[in-house]
């Protein structure tokens, strides 16, 4: 690894730690010429995922879009940031484990809803109202009844 300060190729690793739930390795390095220290990260290079939008257009997968949507849905709820991050991580892991390079946005939305249903029902309804674009009160009520039916089955 080349030193970012003096450009010398001779460096040594002084500390190594796993970060980001084991998805990356953080290394502290020291340049043997100038003695300065710096940090590097090593991670698996992942294949780019493409999201197929409802209108048929395609764009690169961006986990921040899911994160931002969940943050809005969970606003003023008792859902913590680590819980939200865990949902995003599980959804992304499930998509990547499916070994497809293109995934419909509808499938991503359903995966998020399935995860959110078990965390906070109000946040679930908020997310569903934006994601499913309820056209009227009847479609909104149908989703509430579906959710209430899920609760009844869960409590049996």
Automatic annotation (TrEMBL):
HAMAP family: NrdR (MF_00440)
Pfam families (alphabetical): ATP-cone (PF03477), Zn_ribbon_NrdR (PF22811)
Top-level division of the source organism's lineage: Bacteria
Name of the featured protein: Transcriptional repressor NrdR
Zinc finger (unnamed): 3-34
Requisite cofactors: Zn(2+)
InterPro entries assigned to the protein according to its UniProt record, in alphabetical order: ATP-cone_dom (IPR005144), NrdR-like_N (IPR055173), RNR_NrdR-like (IPR003796)
Keywords: ATP-binding, DNA-binding, Metal-binding, Nucleotide-binding, Repressor, Transcription, Transcription regulation, Zinc, Zinc-finger
PANTHER family according to UniProt: TRANSCRIPTIONAL REPRESSOR NRDR
Keyword Zinc among record annotations: yes
Domain spans labelled ATP-cone: 49-139
KW Transcription (keyword) present: yes
Organism, as annotated: Megasphaera hominis
Function: Negatively regulates transcription of bacterial ribonucleotide reductase nrd genes and operons by binding to NrdR-boxes.
Cofactor note: Binds 1 zinc ion.
Entry similarity comment: Belongs to the NrdR family.
């Amino acid at each position: 690894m080349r030193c970012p300060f003096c450009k010398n190729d001779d460096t040594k690793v002084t500390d190594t730690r796993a970060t980001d739930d084991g998805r990356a390795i953080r290394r502290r390095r020291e340049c043997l010429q100038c003695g300065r220290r710096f940090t590097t990260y090593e991670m698996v290079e992942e294949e780019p995922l493409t999201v197929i939008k409802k209108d048929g257009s395609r764009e690169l997968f961006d986990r921040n879009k899911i994160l931002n949507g969940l943050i809005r849905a969970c606003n003023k709820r008792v859902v913590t940031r680590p819980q939200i991050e865990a949902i995003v991580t599980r959804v992304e892991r499930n998509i990547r484990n499916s070994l497809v390079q293109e995934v419909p946005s509808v499938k991503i939305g359903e995966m998020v809803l399935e995860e959110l249903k078990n965390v906070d029902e109000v946040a679930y309804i908020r997310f569903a109202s934006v994601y499913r674009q309820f056209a009227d009160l009847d479609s909104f009520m149908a989703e509430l009844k579906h959710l209430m039916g899920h609760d009844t089955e869960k409590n049996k």
